[in-house]
Structures
1.
Amino acid sequence: MVIYTEWSKALLEDRHCGALSALACQGPPTPKPPCESPTCPTIACTKKPQFFKMLPDGISTYLEYPKIHGIWGETDSRAFLFSFPNDTRNFQDSMSACCAIGLKLLSLYQSMTYDIVGSVFKQGSGDTSVFWTSGTDAGCEDYFGYCSTNRLAREESRWKENQPDNANGSENCLALEIKSGVALLQDENCDKKFRYICEGRLKNGMEIVKKECALTFNISDNEIDVMYNFSMFTPSEKCFLKCFGEGADLFVNGRLLEEKIFAQFNVLAAGDIDRLMDMYSTLNYCSNLTRGMDECDKISRMIKCGRDNSPDVVQSLISSLENSIAPAPLILPPTEAVCPTFKCVTMDYRKQAIDAVLNYSNNFKLLGDSGKVTFMCGKKFFMIYTTPELWTVPALYEKCCAYGMRLMTVETLEKFQCVSQGIITFGGPDVYFPVAASRLGAIDKPKWCYSNKPLDPVLVAYLANNTDPLNYLIMMNFYNHSTFAPIIAGHPYSNNIACLSWKYNSRYWTSGIRTDSSNTSFRWCSTDKNVSKELWAGAQPDNVNGTENCAQMVIYTEWSKALLEDRHCGALSALACQVAYLDFLRG
């Protein structure tokens, strides 16, 4: 049985009886259990496109005029928007207003947020006001939770005196009064109109989560470094581990997210059934064995159990989750270069193969990848033979991730010179290596994507003469002397550039249409250009029965190709839309 949540349907498929899967049991009806969490309003949390401007990658967007939406405050990793004093709304409309600008209505499941919001408001917005948060106990009286993050309100929630009181039995939503920098909760009728606070992350990643949790529970960097080797934890360390586990999406409301962890195990096992069963056995044992006095105690016991029984599994899981955390979505106009969003999944068999290479290898091959493995500057490098125009920018990062490696970074002049000398014999004048740096959205402020550090001024000088915003991908050439070269991402364009992002062999309508029924001439309606003959599949267009006047794109993922066929314009098919910067099927 396959559950399709987006369609609210359950359908059947036939599978080999030996395949691994979850199971569904049935029995007599059971009494409805007592509620444990509130019911949040059903709204479509979508951004309003008219508020946003797109960057040259055709993907990233940012709020074009942020100051028209409210009063902004920022920390190192978060942005907060306080609505203007005359912008008051009810609870549900406040949620929609935040969604419209790519943010979420405030959640206060972490105690440090009270201090952050109170301080930011006092510094930039005013002295006293009441704001909606995303908290509610609708449908589950006295069990408050935050709808924006699906987190329950904690015991350490900070309430105004004599709150919550559920006056008149109709106060089911949480508002926050900020007075002289002190933020306290109160319950209110959800239909009342108050100002509202939206929040969003400016930075993501394990280090950001670790820093915020350490600040909340007063844990030093030294204590964090040695914590993993200890068998006993202080109360503060237990709660730090809970905070960190929730930030990494391992736990929510004290519950282990087994479904997400099992999905990660499937990726890490890479088809090895024995390894998958070993991982699941540890997960099952630790999640059922551990009990604690509170959430902090329970979660720290689970982590200790996993570490004691399968330390390699726990380490692989943490590394996988750390790599899979996507960069925070862009909110405000960029003040520095924007790096690509990509999914970093390490495949164990690829990592093991590259780890096994202990000496220089001139001809490393694995499942279609071939290149050189070399050692220099204290690191191992795998230089893959490929053609850059056949890859999207995120795919460059993902390819390195598959081997447990990172796209090349040369943050210092010393490393730049060291790498230059080491690779000088590799490639020729036309061979360029993409590096993990970007100029997207801020041509004059390029940065390294893994560390967020700016490029050295000497390296920036190589890029100074090229100010085209399309040329945001940075590459290096090591022929004779090292040079940096900004190039247009994916240039020269190829009709195969996006094939790797398609999961299935599929057909899609394009804007191509026949211009003369007596010949094979087609034009793109979107650009009014002729369709190149090279884009057609073999024996196409064939105009069967003289009725096939529209061009359809066929994705062949096994060949990484997209080719055209002519079809009857009334045939049903999916469609492919494009943006101006990714016109990869141009004539």
2.
Amino acid sequence: MSTTSLCLPLTEPVSATSVPPSDKTQNVSATLVCVNHSALVSWVGSPRDVRYNVTLTGQDGHTQHCHTNTTSCQLFDIDCGETYSITVTPYSKTCRGHPSAVYSFEAGLCAPINVTVSPACEDRTVSWTHVTGAEMYIATATAADGHKHTCSSNYSSSCNFTGLHCGETYTVTVVTVDRGCWSEPSSAVDMKTALCPPTNLKGQVSCDTNTMTLTWDPTPLSGVTYTLQTDLGSQFTPSVYTTSNTSHTLTNGLCGQRYAVRIAAQDGNCRGRYSSPIEISTAPCQPTNLIAHVDCGTNKGNFSWFQSSGVGFYTVKVTGENGHVASCSSNDTSCAVRLDCGHSYSATLVASTDSCNSSKHADINFDSAPCLIEDVSAELQCNTNVMNVSWTETPGTDNYTAWAISTDGHRASCNSTSNSCSIHDLQCSKVYEVAVTSSSIHCTIISGSDYNVQSAPCKPENIAVDQSCSSKTMTVKWSQGSTTQNNTVTATSASGVNSTWDSSESSYSFLDLSCGQLYTFTVMGHTNVCMSEMSTPVEKLTAPCPPTNVSAVLNCTTRTALVRWSSAAAATAYSVQATSMSGLNSSCSDMGTSCSLNNLVCGLEYSVVVEAMNTGCPGPASAPAMLATEPCAPVNLSVHYNVSTAQVMWGAARGASSYSVQAVTAQGWTVTCNTTNTSCSLNGLQCGQIYNITVRAQNRACDSVISKTHHLKTEPCPPTNVKASLECDHRILTVSWQQSDFAD
């Protein structure tokens, strides 16, 4: 390709005034422009040059020209991978200069060729033919919807894509990077990814045969086959099945197993990735070793069995010859039902999940426990804790045994040949199940019965009373062993007032007992019919009542406050606490009805409360009395004087309601003023005096201490005894006077 230049002729007429161009253009250079693959040529010009001609010549001889009056020029349409020669020729208005030295410029590299991609089911690799001089290669895969993936390589002529979507066809191109510039894209090739796994995989189990039917949604592409994988865990090798349908049936499933099933789509020899697994549980395995054990007295049928695989829960169903039907369920290996005594039963054990029952079950036949003596009646003697048991005799001669069986396993009994006997050695506060058997009834152990009798309550022991001074509560505690029973707790004051509460615990807290009272605390256990012995009584004094008639009076001389109050019942000592709004405190204590507060701070108001105490336990605080201390002394005193009048000023004193200002001379002459402000005028001051000026703050309680003294010297008085004498001969007038104090 060639471009027609606009060069001037090689020779031109030159006038005598013509200025030649520069001899030769210097420092020619060229830069590759990435955005349009052009060459930007620049050089150092001369003031004599008015324009330049840039010539770019390729290895095949084609040339391009660029004319400019600046020191740079951009050349377009350069071929990739080509090396160009560049010269710059200067021109004056009338002359052409010599071309510059040749500058060699390498255009940007071309795009790679022979771009290929790996098959769909292999690694997702793109490769190409190496381009000499390439700094980097960048491959781009573009899907039909426009989303892109890239990979790059610095040294090799291939790279791998990651994160490509399944079931897509991508257009792949590769560019060469040279001096930071990308080449034009290579010729595009298509890359096809493996199929996506089918969706909506579902499984259904036939509980009778453990056959699993699997279904899924078809893949849009025709001619596709599907691969199913079933997995029972690390102990089993996964099984693989192939079908061209959208459903498949798996037979001969193992009972009690949880299958993980995954599916993948396959196009020809290319199989896509497997789906996330779904889990399918087969019917549970048949339970074995069902055993029945019956209890005399309670008429319970206790069933146990061996655990089987894949079971969510078990159900035992029993049917008696008398038509009685009962059942129990458990997620363990045992359960119990209530039976009718003296009958034959059959039992069936079925294992289940949420969706299936075991196809086979365990069956046994057994006899319920024999019936015990009927019409049993028991009466407890509360004072002796002896139970009198009676029943209806059976025909003939028989030996009878009456049993009392507690829920924690304690057993006591009595024997008789008639229809009654008395059971001794019962433990207190126990619930006993009472049953009667005879020598003609063949029961090895009587487990209990539905007839319950509670023994006498236990006597509470180890009574203790804890006093909480802060919450003003009295907590009564006692021991009642390992039993749980109802107890009546009583607090009786010295004046005979009772407070009674019931508690099923081993403690109770009284919150509303009267202050300053001596209480006696007792505890008794009780049932619906019996009371225990009363516990050993414990006496305890409640916290004293709050003192009344509290007053606080400030002594203005000693700067202390005397606090007084009326005595409180049951108090052995008193504690006084004075607290200001700023948190300053002062306290005192005494065994009488007054004490003095020291170290009070001036200018504050204190809230004063009194607490009564006994044995170190303070009672509630009294109603507060307010105490205002004396005001603080005024500070920063200053005086401005002007002929017999002094303006006195000072800083406000904390706690002051008014101020008194006094000016006193050594002779005792005094001038005062009073104010509620922080300044005051002293009038009528005498000349020639030294006044000592002080300020005192005042409030309803006391006067403050006086401020620091300010000394004021007034102006000198006018001279007295003024005399004048004239010497006529010498015409001299002599004046004399009485000297004034402080006159200079």
